[in-house]
Amino acid sequence: DAKTTQPPSMDCAEGRAANLPCNHSTISGNEYVYWYRQIHSQGPQYIIHGLKNNETNEMASLIITEDRKSSTLILPHATLRDTAVYYCIVRANDYKLSFGAGTTVTVRA
Amino acid sequence: DTAVSQTPKYLVTQMGNDKSIKCEQNLGHDTMYWYKQDSKKFLKIMFSYNNKELIINETVPNRFSPKSPDKAHLNLHINSLELGDSAVYFCASSPARSHNEQFFGPGTRLTVL
Q1: Which H helix or E strand runs over A108?
Q2: Which chain A residues are Cβ-neighbours of B107 within 8 angstroms?
Q3: Nearest-10 Cα torsion for A82, B23, B56, B85
Q4: Which residue has the higher pLDDT, A13 or A99?
Q5: Is pLDDT at A95 greater than 80 in this prediction?
Q6: How far from B67 is each of A69, A107, B74, CA to CA, in Å?
């Protein structure tokens, strides 16, 4: 699987959009970009995934650059409950998820 | 009802003991997984079963033996526990082996003394 690079941490103000970057410059054509998050002391939670088109669901939006070498997860209106570690994962369409260090996002009131 | 449940939530035991962690999912999924999250918070896949058949075994010591009595259950048995086995173990499931979303349980914190 392609490796990903994420900033170790970031802060966000409550009610504002949180933009989480991820670099995956070695991504190959059949690999998808996935985002999961892990709230303290809980299991990881799926957020969104995409191949090359931008995606949106009730939790977030995923913007993938045209060359697919990077992506941004957008939480449109961050709340205190969005404080978590966010993982960007690149994988082929199989069953393995390889989690890196992720970005620790702290939403502040 | 909890979708993916694990028991126990906490497990403290002595080195050399044998212990089991149980996982059950009520989602009707075909595929189940075990992950280990170490003290540095890295989460790594250990095993995956699809319809009771082992499909992933990621270089895990053979002291770890998964058992799937049916597709709703995937238990993890650990023999001769070592200090380095201390970690949080997560069970997960997905509708199929290639399905995009995996649903994780709450985790079992294992401490080996």
Answers
A1: strand A103-108
A2: 41-43
A3: 80
A4: A13
A5: no
A6: 39, 40, 6
